[in-house]
From TrEMBL:
Gene symbol of the encoding locus: GGACT
Protein name: Gamma-glutamylaminecyclotransferase
PANTHER family in the record: GAMMA-GLUTAMYLAMINECYCLOTRANSFERASE, TROPONIN C-AKIN-1 PROTEIN
SUPFAM superfamilies xref list: Gamma-glutamyl cyclotransferase-like
Keywords from the named record: Lyase, Transferase
CDD domains attached to this UniProt entry: GGCT_like
Active site: residue positions: 82
Organism: Iconisemion striatum
Enzyme superclass (EC): lyase
Gene Ontology biological process terms in this record: modified amino acid catabolic process
E.C. designation(s): 4.3.2.8
Pfam families for the chain: GGACT
Amino acid sequence: MARVFVYGSLKKGQPNYHYILDKNNGKAEFLATATTTQRYPLVIATKYNLPFLLNLSGQGQRVHGELYQVDEKMLKYLDDFECVPTQYQRTVVELEVKEWAGNREEMPPGSITEAFVYSTTTYQPDWLSLPTYDNYNAYGDHGLTFTLRENRH
């Protein structure tokens, strides 16, 4: 089992959350809400308005997301879904746990843990001048409509 931190369209209530729930893709168990201990630029970019985490520690904001425990099948699925290694890379990120799910209390809130995260491998230079977000929401007040994969040409 591996831990994965999701910050974008795979979070609860977001357009791609159903992929995490689909048992055909593997097993995923929601563990906690968490925030990166370091600041990273989380931007919305491309004509499809996709969330991208740039692997530039110290820039941007501390990013809020969800921590999952996944099996090897789901990890492989997520690698494929995120187009590793061409579009995204899977690296380790340090997280501060905000709140554990249910009766789970592995460590007290505020504890530090690590998980895999998917960050973009390449980006356009102008992405560094885009607004950064601490908590992505496809339906947020940014006015940028997320385009589902099946609707991208």
